[in-house]
Amino acid sequence: MKTQVLLLLTLVTAIVVLAQPQETTAPPTQTPPASSAKRQVSGPDAVWLSISPNQQHVVLTAADLKQLPRKTNVVHNPDSNTDERYEGVLLADLLTKYGAPLGKDLRGPALANYVVATGADGYKVVYSLAELDPSFHPGDVIIADTMEGKPLDAHTGPFRLVSTEDKRPARGVRNLVSIELRSAP
Q: 177 near 18, Cβ under 8 Å?
């Protein structure tokens, strides 16, 4: 029940943040729970990052993500039968920056952690934390903001979650608005 309330609060905050007119963008800000996040950053180019085990809530903008190390990945889109080149930030790098237990720290109880990524339309996908850790899994999951060197279009972006190892792009979340790190009970 507590997890469902946190998810609902996070989604409502993300919708409120995305619905407000764009203001000046502040650097990534650690904030108290969701209620004050909308005061920190607003506009359509923000993604809500909630790292629940550490009780951190951060709103990141496109400008914030551009400041982080970039990764380019090519994935095959079976619907259009084409290869697509995306650029963005490794989700593992972003989670590590905010204290997620990856690398040597991903062991024991931390292996019960997982990420829920949500799109603006409410579409949700789950990745185990081990799937995101390069020391466990060969694939990359990125928060992409460009495709073929151009910003993502309104149908897909401003952010899209892209995975290189999935055989189908079903866990590719378009219009990404929130990422939550959770722990299985």
A: yes
CATH ID of 2-183, from 3.90.420.10, 1.20.1440.20, 3.30.1330.50, 3.40.50.720 = 3.90.420.10
Which stretches of the chain are DSSP H helices?
Answer: 2-19, 37-40, 62-66, 91-97, 129-132
What CA–CA distance (Å, rounded) separates 34 from 132? 25
Average pLDDT over residues 87-109: 93
Q: What is the pLDDT of residues 45-67, one digit of tens each?
A: 677 765 555 667 888 888 888 89
pTM, two decimals, is: 0.73
Q: Identify the three-state secondary structure at position 62.
A: helix
N- to C-terminal Cα separation, the chain: 12
Residue 35: φ, ψ to 5°: -60, -35
